Automatic annotation (TrEMBL):
<feature type="domain" description="DinB-like">
    <location>
        <begin position="20"/>
        <end position="145"/>
    </location>
</feature>
<dbReference type="InterPro" id="IPR024775">
    <property type="entry name" value="DinB-like"/>
</dbReference>
<dbReference type="InterPro" id="IPR034660">
    <property type="entry name" value="DinB/YfiT-like"/>
</dbReference>
<protein>
    <submittedName>
        <fullName>DinB family protein</fullName>
    </submittedName>
</protein>
<dbReference type="Pfam" id="PF12867">
    <property type="entry name" value="DinB_2"/>
</dbReference>
Length: 157
């Protein structure tokens, strides 16, 4: 869990600075009409944080195995209206939500990391797995935004 927390701290520390090298156009331009802009991808990461924060909290006291509810990522990005928001607002939201997540996962007692959850009709996974997956999903999209290579991702570990 320490490695995951360090990694999240590294990203919320370095990503805002990385965006400073980009123009407003680069941040808000959609590569195709149906594709997300970089700002919307970051918005999608906020939605992932909102939904996962909820899961990381609820799984700790609800009855086991905890049932995960999926969310429609396309509707979420659209209805949240990230594309119309000032970029700083989306960036600050992403940083704040991840600080909350770090705080919650830091306080999860070790034995609770083995708690089980799953989507309907799917195999069960542990809370630990869910948290690891949250980080991997974030890194997948950061890579997409910055076209970062594996080398860059490794550099932070
Ligand atoms: Ni995604």
């Amino acid at each position: 869990m320490h490695r995951i927390i360090d990694q999240l701290l590294f990203w919320i520390d370095s990503i805002p600075g990385e965006f400073r090298h980009m123009s407003e156009l680069e941040i808000s331009q959609r590569p195709a009409p149906q594709k997300w802009s970089k700002k919307e991808i970051l918005g999608h990461l906020c939605d992932s944080a909102i939904n996962n924060l909820d899961r990381f909290i609820n799984i700790q006291y609800e009855k086991q195995p905890f049932l995960l509810t999926p969310y429609d990522q396309v509707y979420w990005v659209k209805i949240q209206g990230y594309q119309e928001l000032p970029f700083d607002e989306v960036m600050n939201l992403w940083v704040s939500l991840n600080k909350k997540i770090i705080n919650v996962i830091k306080n999860i007692p070790n034995e609770k990391l083995a708690l089980q959850c799953g989507f309907e009709n799917n195999q069960l996974i542990t809370l630990q797995w869910l948290i690891q997956d949250y980080l991997e999903h974030m890194e997948h999209h950061l890579k997409q935004i910055f076209k970062m290579n594996e080398q860059f991702l490794k550099f932070s570990q």
